[in-house]
Write a structure and sequence with these properties.
Distance between the termini: 59 Å
Radius of gyration: 32 Å
Number of domains: 5
Largest sheet: 10 strands, mixed
Number of helices: 18
Number of strands: 25
Shape: globular
């Protein structure tokens, strides 16, 4: 592949426009996006600074962006137009893994990159070494697209389908947080009118897989904040399996975890009680707990801490009751709750029981209003709104058994307070600890019964890594009479050599519909010419396309399109091409599958996971499914179970 010349990026023209990072890609900034994807990209690149210095180089442009935070940060956006002839691999593995392998190969790809200073320096260093060593050729030079560690790298095919390849936020040394990068990418996709965009979710936070952590806390991956949802899973995981796994792991009752883990791990019940003390509602399931902790993390300042311990009620200076009377009323209410034997009782029931000792109903109302998730002695007073009756209810939780000191006696008030003081750092430690003990490193006690679901559900969620967002879909425009007397019509092409696959599904034999714009006085013949021009421009395998007829419209070539094609109609054209690859599938992203996949998990196609081939039958299987750990190299000789069994059954030689 030809190289990019980034040296020119250091020699900017004085007065070159600088764009606001947080607005780039919005309507009208820097351009109005009113056409299909490929036209919008061309319109955007007119505002870029050309980085191409010779005909040997692939076309590229750059944009200066400025991000304002505490101080302005200068960022470069590079857009690289990669023609299919310059690509090292014409077929797109990303398309194959997410189910788009039936798409035709496009003539061009557009790479959008936010490189770090290190990646630019690495490229320029290789460029300088290559220039000093005259023996180096263009193909041997380092290429910006091949370098790793970009702040962001996304690629679009010219038909509007794309892939987000990498996002590296602050933890990876970037000046931008991950959510700022995603907001920028989302604006680009929306503005350019991309059809669908996929990504491989490998995002992590302090060693925790975010698709598992956020799946437990929010029921969706971290990228779900921007509309990305389950696209396809590895190891034959389906959407239904993914949804059931989310429901199972979110609904795991906390009391069962405490019962099975609390005896061997005293820290877990302490963590549960710590956040129950801070919550205004009852935390019943594992999903409730992680949702509360993640929400608290988003609101808790990094440098501050919250004291989750509340020892009784402190009377304010403006309170009309003395601290002694408030404390006495608190003890009466706690004793009334003790007599309820730790069951949930309504506010009115507690109030009536306390009135036998305290006649001042105003004082009781004040204490009941203030007494929620407070620790009084060895008890945590919990308050929650009954979801059925909509009535406030109270109960006591005995925390003395989860807060013993080393001598076995109860903790002092000061030591309890220390345990319940939380900072942002402590919160992240607690999240990591629960993630490790419950989700990652399950003990043998978790291997049986209902807890086996945690391991299975976690594995399914982790295998659901390919996410897709539909931006404008297969039909990005309404079929309507446009401005200036122009008509927008959806059209696609079915090649004559592919007519035999119609019974198996015509959609797989046809590229996605393209919006063709023509005057309302255009004829059917002119429409066919416009369709032919559009599809030749987009697809590599249709460069010699000849449109012959309209399959689902009975019309003559001289008939006017307007009046024959009603609003909302989609037209299918029949055509032919001289490309040889059409006969063996080489013009499709999946290419010609030369090997067979038949894995015990049910997979019949490659999904990006590590595989091994049997040396006898040459059938491919996942290494994980045949019990070869990822930490172990693939053996030089491998036999699948079926071939092994056949060898065993062979008669022995005399």
């Amino acid at each position: 592949m030809s190289h990019l010349d980034l040296i020119g990026s250091k020699k900017r023209k004085r007065g070159e426009r600088v764009f606001r990072f947080k607005s780039f890609g919005e309507p009208g900034y820097p351009v109005e996006f009113i056409g299909p994807f490929r036209e919008n990209v061309k319109a955007l690149l007119e505002f870029g600074h050309s980085e191409t210095n010779s005909s040997r180089e692939i076309p590229s442009w750059s944009f200066q962006l400025e991000f304002h935070r505490h101080h302005p940060v200068q960022i470069l956006l590079f857009v690289v137009e990669e023609p299919v002839e310059a690509s090292l691999n014409r077929h797109c593995n990303h398309c194959q893994y997410v189910g788009w392998g039936h798409h035709m190969i496009c003539n061009k790809k557009y790479h959008f990159l936010l490189p770090t200073k290190d990646t630019v320096a690495a490229y320029l260093n290789c460029e300088g070494n290559s220039n000093n060593n005259r023996a180096g050729s263009a193909n041997g030079k380092s290429n910006l697209l091949e370098l790793q560690g970009h702040i962001m790298h996304g690629v679009f095919h010219s038909n509007g389908y794309g892939h987000l390849l990498s996002v590296n936020g602050v933890e990876m040394g970037s000046d931008l947080a991950g959510h700022h990068i995603m907001e920028f990418w989302d604006r680009l996709c929306t503005g350019l009118r991309a059809r669908k965009v996929s990504l491989n979710d490998n995002s992590q936070k302090r060693g925790m897989e975010l698709r598992l952590l956020h799946g437990l806390g929010y029921g969706e991956p971290w990228f779900g904040r921007w509309g990305y949802d389950f696209g396809s899973g590895t190891f034959c995981v389906t959407r239904s399996m993914y949804q059931k796994a989310i429901e199972a792991i979110q609904g795991m009752p906390l009391y069962l975890l405490i019962h099975h883990l609390g005896t061997s791990n005293h820290e877990i019940p302490i963590i549960f009680s710590r956040y129950q003390a801070l919550s205004d509602h009852s935390l019943v399931t594992l999903g409730d707990l992680f949702n509360f902790m993640l929400e608290l993390k988003s609101r808790l300042p990094t440098e501050n801490s919250i004291d989750t311990y509340n020892s009784g009620i402190t009377a304010e200076t403006t309170c009309r009751w003395s601290p002694k009377r408030v404390e006495m009323a608190t003890r009466v209410i706690v004793e009334a709750l003790k007599r309820a034997e730790f069951r949930w009782v309504s506010r009115q029931e507690v109030r009536d029981a306390a009135r036998a000792y305290i006649g001042d109903t105003g004082l009781l109302d004040f204490v009941l209003k203030s007494l929620g998730n407070h620790i009084v002695g060895n008890y945590l007073v919990r308050r929650s709104l009954n979801p059925v009756t909509k009535v406030l209810e109270y109960c006591l939780e005995d925390i003395s058994n989860v807060l013993p000191n080393q001598e076995g006696s109860f903790m002092t008030s000061q030591r309890v307070k220390e345990r319940y003081k939380i900072s942002s750092l402590q919160l992240m430690k607690d999240i990591s600890y629960l993630y490790k003990c419950i989700l990652k490193d399950q003990k043998p006690a978790l291997g049986a019964g209902i807890f086996s679901a945690i391991s299975v559900a976690s594995r399914i969620i982790l295998d659901s890594k390919y996410l897709i967002k539909e931006y404008s879909g297969d039909l990005p425009f309404k079929v309507e009479l446009g401005f200036e007397g122009k008509l927008n019509i959806y059209c696609t092409v079915l090649l004559r050599s592919n007519r035999e696959v119609q019974d198996e599904g015509t959609e797989k034999a046809m590229p996605p519909y393209e919006c063709v714009t023509l005057k309302n006085i255009a004829t059917i013949d002119e429409l066919k010419q416009e369709v032919q021009r559009n599809f030749r421009e987009v697809y590599w395998g249709l460069r010699s396309l000849v449109v012959e007829s309209v399959l689902n419209l009975n019309a003559n070539g001289t008939d006017l399109v307007f009046g024959l094609v009603e609003v909302g109609r989609k037209l299918v054209f029949q055509g032919s091409t001289k490309e040889q690859g059409i006969m063996n599938g080489q013009i499709y992203e999946c290419g010609l599958n030369s090997h067979v996949v038949d894995c015990p998990c049910g997979a019949k196609d490659e999904d990006g996971e590590r595989m091994v081939s049997c040396d006898i039958c040459e059938v491919w299987q996942h290494t994980r499914c045949v019990r070869i750990p990822n930490t172990v190299e693939i053996p030089h000789i491998f036999l699948c179970n079926r071939c092994e069994q056949e060898i065993v059954l062979l008669p022995s030689l005399p």
